[in-house]
Amino acid sequence: METTRQQKVSRQIQKDLSEIFRQEGRELSGGKMVTVTVVRMSPDLSLAKVYLSIFPSDEKDKFLKRLQSYVKHIRLELGKKVRHQLRIVPEIAFFIDDSMDYAARIDSLLDS
Predict the structure, then answer these.
(1) Rounded to an integer, what distance in angstroms lies between the CA atom of residue 2 and that of residue 11?
(2) Model pTM score
(3) For residue 42, what are the CA distances in angstroms to 39, 45, 47, 50?
(4) How confident is the model at residue 23 (pLDDT cuts 50, 70, 90)?
(5) Phi and psi of 55, rounded to 5°?
(6) Which domains does the chain have, with CATH numbers?
(7) 3-state helix, strand, coil in the chain (%, to 5)
(8) 70/7 Cα distance (integer angstroms)
(9) In this structure, are residues 51 and 97 in contact, taking their beta carbons and an 8 Å threshold?
(10) Phi, psi torsion values for 54, nearest 5 degrees
């Protein structure tokens, strides 16, 4: 179970990463619409697991590899935004949130 501090830091990082993706969207996303759906913090606040929803959802693996090359830049920008709130800027690990694809698949199975 997450502590209150983890939840607050998760919400702040989600908000700040969303802002970074909005500002630098074309460079980072390659023309795809990216939404930060969930951020989960480790208990010591040193690692942020960031789940992204991508539209259109084709070529997810290619997008994730492209994003991995920008992790240092994204962490630097995140550090500029949270430098007054956090002592340590967390490491960032990106994952694809495929819950929307899963829901669409279930919906199509139920319709047929």
Answers:
(1) 12
(2) 0.85
(3) 10, 5, 5, 11
(4) confident
(5) -135, 130
(6) 4-111 (3.30.300.20)
(7) 55, 20, 25
(8) 25
(9) yes
(10) -120, 135
Distance from C-alpha of 17 to C-alpha of 83, rounded to nearest angstrom = 14
Torsion, Cα 57 33 106 108, to 10 degrees, reads -80
Within 13 Å and on the Cβ side, how many CA atoms surround 10? 17
Query: Model confidence over 44-93: pLDDT tens digits?
Result: 999 999 999 888 777 788 888 888 999 999 999 999 999 998 889 999 99
Q: Is there a contact between 89 and 55 (Cβ–Cβ < 8 Å)?
A: no
Name residues whose C-beta falls within 8 Å of residue 34's C-beta, 6 or more positions apart in sequence: 21, 25, 28, 52, 53, 54
